[in-house]
Amino acid sequence: MSYKIFGDSCLDLTEELKKDPRFEMIPLTLQVDDHMVIDDETFDQKAFLQMVKESPNCPKTACPSPEAFKKACECDADDVYIIALSSHLSGTYNSAVLGKELYEEEHGKGSKNILVIDSESASAGELNEALAIRDMYEEGLTFSEISERILKMRDEQQTYFVIDTLEPLRKNGRLTGLQAFFATALNIKPVMGADHGVIIKLDQARGIAKGLARMCELATKRAGKPEEKRAVIAHVNCPERALQVKAELEKRGNYRDIVITNTAGVATVYAGDGGIVLAVG
């Protein structure tokens, strides 16, 4: 059976996976003031970060249309998986579900196998789920077996992030100017996580190096058996920092696999320049 894995543009594929026809991203649209940016292969991260830096306003994102997801379902694969941003963060999941329904209305329910997944994560977490599906196909599992296992893996996966700048949080109203000022003055870096797709604060540390180390410590402790887990590190314009996180993880556990990827536009909006997103599962 042939398969294809679609994700919104927060799937954050590696350069290698972008060349693999089994993986494809469906772009969101980004807006900075009056500038509209399609989050596809033309996305220029450095230019976008400069545009965000120069704007006093928070960038906005718009999810793909149901028609875009319907078109994805019309591919020639027998089994189709669509991995969407956490439904607590975006309307992408609902748009994907509607796209599946539109396809089934036109072509008949059961005409092909389609699973829409609320990743309950973003960025590194979405990519980790996509790689898990690929692994399961290589094991020879069926669509129904993979569907059951990937949702279990999704529920057990842990997502973390550390941001270098509090500007994205300040601009979108998550922090008052005063809080942002004191946190910046004291060089406080929050260590954030996700509880079934809802962003929560786990800890904080003085300085980015200590924040990242604390994130890796929490991730490895929660992983239980890291030798059975894959870690995916997504970075926003900071490959050297991603390598530091990889080294911190390797010091703490013998992970089955560690993958590094650069973020596309959506994660760049929310994690900000220098941000790191980590998923373990």
UniProtKB/TrEMBL annotation:
<protein>
    <submittedName>
        <fullName>DegV family protein</fullName>
    </submittedName>
</protein>
<keyword id="KW-0446">Lipid-binding</keyword>
<dbReference type="InterPro" id="IPR043168">
    <property type="entry name" value="DegV_C"/>
</dbReference>
<dbReference type="InterPro" id="IPR003797">
    <property type="entry name" value="DegV"/>
</dbReference>
<dbReference type="InterPro" id="IPR050270">
    <property type="entry name" value="DegV_domain_contain"/>
</dbReference>
<dbReference type="Pfam" id="PF02645">
    <property type="entry name" value="DegV"/>
</dbReference>
